[in-house]
């Protein structure tokens, strides 16, 4: 199906682009180098010199410019070659390289992969709640996954898998036993599971006064095109105790079958407990690394190069949100095509 080009993709956590470091990352099969200038503004260029195609990420930053390590050509943040140390120093007309529009929002760096004149920062999902949380109540992580990004989005949009794949941590059975409600607008799909009284998942039960007491639970995922999701969980116990968390799952395609998986979490309880926060970060990272990642990678191997929906998979009730998101994204991608 290809990719949605006129969209914002999460390129990196802000902390990944620091100091003199040059970060090379392939997004939508395009290799890009990210760097900060002396004023800490972030720039992004095609990670390939126009002379002999050496990665600029192997070179050095000179102010707001990048110098190729091979023959010394220097490129500005707009992609134009600003210095040619050879011969008469003239700049060949075909020397410029592509530059990308970037926006740093809180802890995140977003890149626009389409036409720069269509880049609208208002389309970036508002995840300020994460950056506003104290360091002792939030975490960020990254995984490189050998699977198509839409399979990973499906994994979050259909949370019924937590009752089986994560039975000892995040699952409690309430998702599978409830009926989800799905709604959508122009660029989002929202799926909500709500139960008035059910078993609390193990990871949260220990935070309730009576871990064995059933509680009201609301779980909601908001998918924003093309592949960013916010998962909100709120649990209200019968004695008035309440806990809530926000998780962020953002899938950035590297290629057709590889994905940059950015995940994060912040919570509204035990916000000043750094030790508890470290435990949460370890748990979340372990679950994604040891359970979700190998499962979806195995799924990708079984599917091969085919499109999932072309194989006519069995469709179950919990698939409603994932299917709506796939349809919406597919329509957006087709609309970008010349005959769309």
UniProtKB/TrEMBL annotation:
Which residues does the UniProt record annotate as the domain Rieske?
Answer: 8-111
Task: State the Pfam families in the record.
Answer: Rieske (PF00355), VanA_C (PF19112)
Q: Annotated Gene Ontology MF terms?
A: 2 iron, 2 sulfur cluster binding; metal ion binding; methyltransferase activity; vanillate monooxygenase activity
The enzyme's E.C. designation: 1.14.13.82
Keyword list, A-Z: 2Fe-2S, Iron, Iron-sulfur, Metal-binding, Methyltransferase, Monooxygenase, Oxidoreductase, Transferase
Q: In its UniProt record, which GO terms are filed under biological process? A: methylation
Q: What class of enzyme is it?
A: oxidoreductase
Q: What are the TM regions of this chain, as residue ranges?
A: none
Name recorded for this polypeptide: Vanillate O-demethylase monooxygenase subunit
Organism per entry: Novosphingobium sediminicola
